Amino acid sequence: MKGLFKSKPRTPADLVRQTRDLLLYADRSTSLPDLRESKREEKMAELSRNIRDMKSILYGNSEAEPVAEACAQLTQEFFKEDTLRLLITCLPKLNLEARKDATQVVANLQRQQVNSRLIASDYLEANIDLMDVLIEGFENTDMALHYGAMFRECIRHQIVAKYVLESDHVKKFFDYIQLPNFDIAADAAATFKELLTRHKSTVAEFLTKNEDWFFADYNSKLLESSNYITRRQAIKLLGDILLDRSNSAVMTKYVSSRDNLRILMNLLRESSKSIQIEAFHVFKLFAANQNKPADIVNILVANRSKLLRLLADLKPDKEDERFEADKSQVLREIAALEPRDLA
Amino acid sequence: MTSSSGTKFPLDAKDYELLERIGDGVYRARCILLDEIVAIKIWNLEKCTKDLETIKKEVHRLSSIDHPNLLRSHCSFIDGTSLWIVMPYMSCGSCLNIMKSVYPNGLEEPVVAIFLREILKALVYLHGLGYIHGNVKAGNILVDSEGTVKLGVERMPTSSGNTFVGTPCWIAPEEDTQQVDGYGFKLDIWSFGMTALELAHGHSPFSKYPHTVAPPLTLQNSPCPVYEEDNKFSKSFRELVAACLIKDLEKRPTASKLLEYPFLQHTLSTEYLASTILDSLYPLGERFRKLKEEEAKLVKRIDGNSEKLSQVTIEGLLTSGKPASPVNPVSCNAAQILPMLQNLLIQNDIQRERVISLMQLYDPTAGKFAVLSADFASSLCYKFRDLILQVS
């Protein structure tokens, strides 16, 4: 039988079909206790090889570059049925190398076009609950990096990112990026950033609808976190979000809040220079706002001398003309402020 | 994160007791909970402000590899502003450390062969995954008391911010000339060949020659830069090295092809390492301290001299170091170079090895460099321009 298969070359579609059968087997095999162990191992090894073969088709190998036609065939067959779901659920049963290969395969498939359509996006739209499965992965140390990487690739599709942002999942990231395991926390932070920066219109819509709870949580859980790396990454990301033109409405509102200003002023006083510098990039928006509310003006005036001194001393390690220009503008703005009566 | 054996290591600095320094930013430590000796790398993230993303990638790579010849991290976590990376403790330290401490003239061929074979196995694995190691050198080859050889894979982003790695003489010429597409892993093969020479000589292959001159030199003199003294090595060794240094990327063999070379065919088991060179080693912490002391003495010796030396601006030295134009040795003497060397040593950790190897050429009684010919002097200028560009 085996000889028969070998005799004619296996097409990419054959490969996917075989892999699917093996995945079905792997999925069932644990519930069939009387299965012979050696048989099971053999099948699992074959599954690992198949996943690696799919990877070679999609990425090429040391001998050959990937072929577009083969990639398209593979992608089409892959998404024709529920292969992705099977692969995701069977992932914990694979060994480390096969898990990594599978993760790379899934990542690549998100970008493959068939007849100039990203069919992965259509598939995920119809199977959006897979995102619920993937996000659970962050809580399992052994699987977090694999599921996390797949998750991040899937939110390349706007429709998927929108789903995640509109679900409760987005709240989970406030905790995931502070997980003690640096590896996993860093991965979660990368995904969080992607969610909040990649699809401009979706992000702007999300922030406008949810700004109250979102920035309250962002401030208290991230910017005021006791964890240095959390604060450092959060302040950087906040700058990226607020400085994005598509979020200008949200930004205007953000810089009108005295609570936000208070937190930013605290960050400016951090002993960590990297945090100070990033905080400056957000703080300057408060100062540059031409319609400052009275209470913001009054806080800035009350702290004027301290702020001027602190900013004068603040310098990035590398010379940065842009930074210096921004700084002198902020210094001028603050120096020229007049106290105002609160309305 | 689990180690390959499945043991969970705690993610809190309180659960570890730092015992002694065994390298720059590396400690021997005890995991109190598991009562296990580990090595911990501590990177101050405030000091390498430039590139958190690169650090994340490195850490990710450290935990996602799984091969007996690669040093995988047990776990990593943040403590204050530092990143702690917990790794298996390799009690004998690096090949570089072993050579510097005990075998300054290099290791014998059977021993070199063992190291090379083990490292190649690691490269075959990495290249299979599509990773380029990017920093193969003796300082990255680690050994434990049983003779287990592991290649360290992290590339610490330096305080100067870029991801520059290693010393240029380990770096293949094509890295300058951008012909790396699709052949990235062949860079590692070049470095592997250089490492072979390093192990056999006891020092880096070009440490007697200026690094920045080395790559073009090897390009011209294809297939391989050979010293007169290299004739003392066996034919099969020279054949292996020459293959690694072939400038044509197509013809330079892959890691798995190299494993089939005659030099690596009758290699002894790693137990041989344990019973020969490793037995005679004194403890790693002590070796590290001793090397540090020697380094400090060197700095001090030069410090004593530098008072008499005239101050020269960096610019002055830079302008005298134009490529291909022979420099007037007077404009580039020891007096000008020493204070700069010293400065570099203080400023920049990653260049330490290079700077020190230069400093060792300094002869304090004569007040000049041992081999300060006009050619050498001019090449020093290159080197400084290179170094300074990296530092600034």
TrEMBL record, chain A:
Pfam families in the cross-refs: Mo25
Gene3D superfamilies with a match to the protein in the record: Leucine-rich Repeat Variant (1.25.10.10)
Classification via SUPFAM superfamilies: ARM repeat
InterPro entries xrefs: ARM-like, ARM-type_fold, Mo25
Lineage: superkingdom: Eukaryota
A GO MF term: protein serine/threonine kinase activator activity
GO terms, biological process: intracellular signal transduction
Family affiliation: Belongs to the Mo25 family.
Protein name: Mo25 family protein
Species per Swiss-Prot/TrEMBL record: Arabidopsis lyrata subsp. lyrata
Lineage, uppermost ranks: Eukaryota, Viridiplantae, Streptophyta, Embryophyta, Tracheophyta
TrEMBL record, chain B:
InterPro entries, alphabetized: Kinase-like_dom_sf, Prot_kinase_dom, STRAD_A/B-like
Sequence ranges assigned to domain Protein kinase in this UniProt record: 16-264
Gene Ontology MF terms: ATP binding; protein kinase activity; protein serine/threonine kinase activator activity
Name of one Pfam family that matches: Pkinase
Organism superkingdom: Eukaryota
Keywords: Kinase, Transferase
Family: Belongs to the protein kinase superfamily. STE Ser/Thr protein kinase family. STE20 subfamily.
Protein name: Kinase family protein
